[in-house]
Each structure stands twice: as C-alpha cells, then as structure tokens.
UniProtKB/TrEMBL annotation:
Residues 5-111 form the AB hydrolase-1 domain. Gene3D superfamilies: alpha/beta hydrolase. It comes from Luteibacter yeojuensis. This is AB hydrolase-1 domain-containing protein.
Length: 208
C-alpha cells in the first residue's frame, strides 16, 4: 500500500497551487491528499482541528504531512501532541520563528486585512518543536518576491521568508535549495528532497 501524504497550501492560496508537487509525490509512489482551508477569514484553530481529524481518519498510517509556508506551521501545531498515526513532516519555506514580512505588513495600511486571522501565528511563529514526529525544513535562497520590501528578512531569503526564520530548535533536518518562496511549489529538487525526507528522515544534501 502506498504511504499517505497530506499537502497544505500557504497563505492566500488554494489547493491547486500544490498541483505540481502533488503530481511529483505521486510519481514518487505516495498516495497524496490535498487539504484545503481558509487562511485569512477563518481562525487557524479551525484548520488545525480539521487536519488532526483528517490525519486520524487515514490511520493506522503512517500519514506524512507536507506544508508550504503557513501550511507548515499548521502542520506542526496539529501534530505536536498527536502520537498516532506515525509519520513525518516536511515544511517548505515556513517561517517557524515568525515572519518579519508579516510583522512589517501589520504596519502598513491594509496589512491586518491581508493577513486576517493568521496574523498572530505568522508574526510570532513557534518557540521550539517537541512533538513526536521528525520534521524536515526546506528553505530557499532565490531572492524573488516582495517580502524584503516590508520586513527585514535577512541577507539570505527566498523573497518572502528569511532562511533564519525557517530554523527552529527541535527540527530533525534543514536544507537550503536554490528556489524562491513560490518556486518551491513547482521545483523538482524540492519535491525530490521532500520525498527523500519522508522515506529516510533526512535530506539527500550536505547539512546546513
């Protein structure tokens, strides 16, 4: 039986944004499920509760989760005390330490409206990871995007999220690829590394 993988899109996106990654993970032999949620108008707690239910519904598993940007944060929160079923998590450009771009937007007219109910979660992120699942982070450093215009994302970033914003105590593995924030969704390298981590619990790249 193929192993199940749930995909979570990021802020302002819908499930179709993950179509290329979905296809590539299927080609890698996984059974892929798309998880849709309202990233602006609904509270994150609603998506987290639904995701936990979806994961349990696919038990006995394992059930892996791959989340892009905000989706990666939601994946960690949903799985932080979820012992069964087993599985791994891959975050793609997720600002686990909090997003300076999100904090910058809150100081501009309309920023609170753009970020909606996800503002606090994106602005502050998490403190650390102590959940039962192994978590791998794929960060990008191709600087294509507008995030640097509204926040201090650092010298190394993917156009929206700084590499340092993707580091969090407790992660199993971290790798940096030549891709932008939205480019991760169509990158063959990202899909290959994500699949490798889901199978092996590590990335097929030098440690960074």
């Amino acid at each position: 039986m193929p192993t199940d993988v749930i995909l979570l899109h990021g802020l302002w996106m819908k499930g179709f944004a993950m179509a290329m990654l979905n296809r590539r993970l299927r080609e890698e032999g996984f059974r892929v499920h798309q998880f849709e949620y309202m990233s602006v108008v609904a509270p994150p707690e609603q998506a987290i509760a639904r995701l936990r239910k979806r994961i349990r519904g696919l038990a006995p598993g394992p059930v892996h989760v791959v989340g892009h940007s905000l989706g990666g944060i939601l994946a960690l929160l949903a799985c932080q005390d979820l012992d069964e079923p087993g599985g791994r998590i891959v975050c793609l450009g997720s600002p686990l330490n909090g997003s300076s771009a999100a904090r910058g937007l809150t100081h501009h007219w309309g920023g609170d409206v753009l970020l909606g109910r996800s503002r606090e979660l994106l602005s502050h992120g998490l403190d650390h990871w102590e959940g039962p699942r192994e978590v791998g982070m794929i960060a990008g450093r191709q600087q294509v995007g507008l995030g640097a215009l509204v926040g201090d994302v650092g010298s190394e970033h993917d156009g929206s999220v700084g590499v340092e914003e993707t580091r969090l105590p407790g992660l199993t593995a971290h790798c940096i690829l030549e891709t932008s924030h939205t480019g991760m969704l169509v990158s063959a390298d990202v899909a290959r590394q994500a699949a490798y981590f889901l199978r092996e619990g590590r990335f097929d790249t030098p440690l960074v």
